[in-house]
Structures
1.
Amino acid sequence: QMKLVESGGGLVQPGGSLRLSCAASGFTLGSFSIGWFRQAPGKEREVVSCISMIDGTTYYADSENGRFTISSDNAKNTMYLQINSLEPELTAVYYCAADSSGVLAMTDDLSWYDYWGQGTQVTVSS
């Protein structure tokens, strides 16, 4: 069974950092493109970053001002999203998604991706 599982979310104080993980099982990420999305309360799901597992190319949403870093560990079949300088506005459920075509696209079109994780909650509050 092909599956993505996110972890690493939690409650963090403003200014803090988190590293989210996205572990794949049932398939190898090596030929996929991966996206990280967030969905804040009452808002639509939006892409924050994506990476090609083929050549390592990365894209980030313009609004993120360098707070996000996407990376991968092919040996562990796992993706990561490092988030620094967390602020309450970043409170959201964070999702990873995998696209089997391998074509990298910085898109909010959820149908672009074939597989989705269940999400991990990130809450930024003092």
2.
Amino acid sequence: QVQLVESGGGLVQAGGSLGLSCAASGRTISTIIMAWFRQAPGKEREFVSAMSWSGGRTYYTDSVKGRFTISRDNAKNTVYLEMNSLKPEDTAVYYCAAVPIIPYFSANYYKDEKYDYWGQGTQVTVSS
């Protein structure tokens, strides 16, 4: 079992920055795939970013490329999502997700049904 706890959400003006954290327990993050998803009101949950268990591969949805960065601190067993140049359309509840393995990871990393463990979510609101 893996427990995930997100933190760091809040209210920020457009163009600003926020950093999200996802603290994991139950398994070291260097042995599992970690990802961030988000869900805006009235919309389906969507993929934001993912990192392979080795940290060697990272993926981003097109709308956040160049603005968001996923990273991790193995010593703290925590994954981060740094968000810059935020836009109102980034407003959503952000969820941390994890799974030990995804077959054909490079083709399936963005599919939420592939992830076994989820945090409770943290709200990010970007005002215009």
3.
Amino acid sequence: QVQLVEAGGGLVQAGGSLRLSCVVSGRTDSNYAMAWFRQAPGKEREFAAVISSSGLTTYYADSVKGRFIISRDNAKNTVYLQLNSLKPEDTANYYCAAARGRSHFYTPRTSGDMDAWGKGTLVTVSS
């Protein structure tokens, strides 16, 4: 079992950038693929990005591809999501999630594949 704590959300103008972080604690001896999901007001939670336990494989939703970058520092048990060229439609609560790795390249992309969730951090993009 792992615990996830996100940080880095805030208010930013359109076109700006933010870097979210997610600190993983608990049973970090298991390999975990790490993902970011987001949920906008009045909408369902959606997948944004995922990185494999090895860090060698990443995958992005089309809506964020080319603007967001997911990375991880396994020595610090931390996963990051760099948000660039932000748009008002990126406004959402951003959630970090962990999935037990089936391989070093495993990149799950659905909520049902996740084994643990953080409580979220709010990103608000003003126009």
4.
Amino acid sequence: QVQLVEAGGGLVQAGGSLRLSCAASGRTFSSQTMGWFRQAPGKERELVAAHTWTGITYYADSVKGRFTSSRDHAKNTVYLRMNSLKPEDTAVYYCAADETAPRRCFSQPVLNECEYWGQGTQVTVSS
């Protein structure tokens, strides 16, 4: 079994930055795609970023140029650096990982078919 544990959420003013981390434990993660989703109150979950084990990254249009994903294979951890945060970035951010069907996991619209999910971390951006 695999566990994903997010950290790094919090309250920040508009224009500020946060870095989320997602640490995986349980077994080797180097061949899995890992990424981030977010869900704001009253809204559908949306894909934010995905990062393949070979280093290919995907970003939603709403975060391109502001968010950056990175991975540390030695630590089985994926990071999401969020700069120039806006109030509309306020949401619970979820880490996810998938090895067998990453295209169905990291899809938009979201199918909620990822193999593994983290518990979520709250990001609140004040105006």
